[in-house]
Every structure is written in C-alpha cells, then in structure tokens.
Design goal:
Arc Repressor Mutant, subunit A; Rossmann fold
Length: 220
C-alpha cells in the first residue's frame, strides 16, 4: 500500500481527496494536516510514502514544507496539488524537490498516477510545466546548482549518459525499465535547461558528477 499524507488548509478539500483516493486499491490515506507546522510533525510521526501538498497555506507555507521535507525526509515523495499554475511557483516547487505539480482541476486519474509515480521516486509533468521549468533554467547558474535540482535517480541516469550509456544500457545498469529511463532523460533535460543528451553530459562533467576520465567521447 502507498501511504499518503494530505496537506491542505481547507477541510473540504482534504475530505474530497480522502474519499477519491479511498477508491484506489493500492493507496491508503494515513493522515490529514491542516497547516504546514502540523504537516511537518505528521511526516515525522506517520512516515508516509507520499505527501499530497497544497502550496497556498499560511506560514509555514507549502514551499517551506517542501524544502523541509526534502532536507529532512528525502525518502518521502512530494506531489504538489494547488490552485495556482503561476510559472514562477511551478519552477520554485520543482526546484525545491516536488516530483509532480498538479492544479486542483486535475482529474482523479492524474492525481492517482502522480501519487504512484512519487512512491517510485518518479514524477509526472505536463508539457507546459516542463516548458516553465526550461524557462526557469534559462537564466543559467553554475553546473553544481543545476545538478542540485535533480533527484537521486535522475542523477544516476545522467551519470550513465555522461559515461556514454544508451537508454537500454542505463536501464540494465540501474535495474529499471527503458521507458522509465526515457522519462528521466526528459526531466533531466528540462531541469538542466539543455537541448540534448550531449549538453546534459557536459553539465554533468562540469559539475563533477562524473570524473572526466570516466566519460566517453560524445557524438556532436
């Protein structure tokens, strides 16, 4: 069972989500938190697999919670479910570690899929949200800062790319599916703000993710 903690300051939203998720045979809602402070306490006490998190709350708001969970409980996957689709907020949430970003107009199927993906340490992003993340990276920054936006699994996939592995070889090396590797590659390119695998590999080398002597020559 995937253990989910709901965090929203509106009781009716929490009740609706609990009812909807109760229809999923592999999902169990283990708690509801009405504010950020309670959410952090409940994460410590309940040890959920996934946090379904609103951002628009009184301080500490959802971004504060997201950063604290990423720092203190990195094993918890966070799915943002909020009312705003503001570009800056999307980028800030994803950089802070959210695996998926959904608005409250999302369907039950989209929410359930994002929860299941987060339990695997993976994310689901729409095309527009990927575009927002790319635009957010366009201003640049150091390679180490760029690499810091990646999840552990994304860093492992990028290291494979920098060493010249194909998607199939990376999948075999990491023990995951080839389609999962492709999904991670898409997210890596978006988070790093680069256009292709070669550019991503260069960022990995510049940031010290892979020693230069371990990298193979990349095609132009």
């Amino acid at each position: 069972m995937i253990r989910v903690l709901l965090v929203d300051d509106h009781a009716v939203v929490r009740q609706g989500l609990r009812f909807l998720l109760a229809q999923e045979p592999d999902v169990e809602v283990v708690g509801e938190s009405p504010d950020g402070a309670r959410a952090l306490a409940d994460v410590r006490a309940l040890r959920p697999d996934v946090l379904l998190l609103d951002l628009m709350m009184p301080p500490p708001d959802g971004l504060d919670v997201l950063e604290a969970v990423g720092r203190d409980h990195p094993e918890v996957g966070v799915v943002v479910l909020t009312s705003s689709s503001d570009d800056e907020l999307v980028v800030r949430a994803l950089r802070a570690g959210a695996l998926s970003y959904l608005t409250k107009t999302a369907s039950v199927e989209e929410i359930s899929a994002a929860v299941r993906a987060a339990a695997r340490g993976e994310g689901l992003l729409s095309g527009p949200d990927l575009a927002k993340l790319v635009r957010g990276r366009a201003s640049g920054g150091s390679p180490r800062d760029a690499l810091a936006t990646l999840s552990t699994r994304e860093s492992e996939v990028l290291a494979c790319l920098a060493r010249g592995r194909t998607n199939r070889e990376a999948a075999r090396e990491l023990g995951i599916g080839e389609e999962t590797v492709k999904t991670h590659v898409t997210r890596i390119l978006a988070k790093l703000g680069v256009q292709d695998r070669t550019q991503a590999a260069i960022v990995a080398l510049q940031g010290g993710l892979v020693p230069l002597d371990e990298a193979l020559d990349r095609p132009s």
